[in-house]
Amino acid sequence: MKSLLLDMNMAVDWIDFLRNEGFTVLRWSMVGDPRAPDEEIMAWAKANQFIVITQDLDFGSLLALTHADGPSVIQLRGSLVMPETSGASVLDTLRSYESDLDQGSLVVINEFRVRVRVLPYS
After folding, report:
1. Of 5, 35, 51, 66, which has fewest CB within 10 angstroms of its CB?
2. 54-78: per-residue pLDDT in tens?
3. pTM, whole model, 2 decimals?
């Protein structure tokens, strides 16, 4: 199963929800300074083979600007960002796009669709 790193903007409810589904889950504050810049979070996630889950658009921008090949990032967009409202979509995405996430990708989930961009951006 995948190892997931929750950005600080993600509710702590995600920890138990994802762990109950068999995932290894950490929140950034468990491994680093909660005020750390996004670049530090991304570097840690890549070095430790974690997928970042966030609501922050800056992570996608960082991937694009640096032409990075990882880590994979899942961005939740819109107002449905709690496990009870978007948990099923996140689980389906983690399972359906496993090979893309293994390769390195940006996955954006909103109320209407899932978009996947394989890294690095060209």
Report:
1. 35
2. 999 999 999 999 899 999 999 999 8
3. 0.95
